Amino acid sequence: KKVTFGYIAGWTFVAASITDFLDGYIARKRGIVTVFGSFIDPIADKFLVVSSLIMLLALERLNVLVVIVLVLREIYITALRLLAIERGVTLPVANLAKWKTAFQMIGIPMLMPNDQPWGLPMPITGKICVYLAALISVYSAMQYSLGLVKKLKDERKKKQELKKSKKEQEQKVEEKVEEQANTSSNTDSQK
Asked: DSSP assignment of the chain, as one string?
């Protein structure tokens, strides 16, 4: 019975992952991206993955450190994205992050049944995929961090240059006004 429920959980995870992918793909393809969808889609993804990781941890199918790394990475990247939005900077999804997601989406459902149908080593394959996802997640989190820091520095530099340019323009205007005032007073005094 436990194996049957494991397969139901695994296939439910697969179905949810596929519908999530299709939903996003169709929305982007047809140009029907909404603010609500853009907000809720990543959260739904995280709920699906994080709840599954916690379940697999409770069933002792994953190491606690791997689960901690993956869950903290999700929280960290969400915080980085919020910071980027607040600063008006985009933080596009990196290709490496897509690989991390792919390994998770393959590995998690393989661990749910904890079975080896037809001799296929699903539990060990699932673990390898999730562990690879954890390694990739650490590296991609560093990539996101460095990328955001660079973008924020570039934005700050642009703002400083714009401020400097504006100040220089104001100074030139003041000089012209002063010059015209001097010219005007000189002509008045010559009369």
From this structure: -HHHHHHHHHHHHHHHHHHHHHHHHHHHHHT---HHHHHHHHHHHHHHHHHHHHHHHHTT-S-HHHHHHHHHHHHHHHHHHHHHHHTT---PPPHHHHHHHHHHHHHHHHHSS---GGG--HHHHHHHHHHHHHHHHHHHHHHHHHHHHHHHHHHHHHHHHHHHHHHHHHHHHHHHHHHHHHHHHHHHHH-
Per-residue pLDDT tens digits for 103-120 = 999 999 999 998 888 889
Length of the chain: 191
Look up the pTM and report it.
0.77
Angle between helices 122-190 and 95-111 (to 10 degrees): 150
- In whole angstroms, give the CA distance from residue 156 to residue 174: 27
The percentage of the chain sitting over the pLDDT mark of 90, rounded to a whole number, equals 49
The residue among 177 and 51 whose pLDDT is bigger is: 51
Predicted confidence at residue 111, as pLDDT, reads 96
Give the pair of three-digit tokens for residue 185: 């007073």
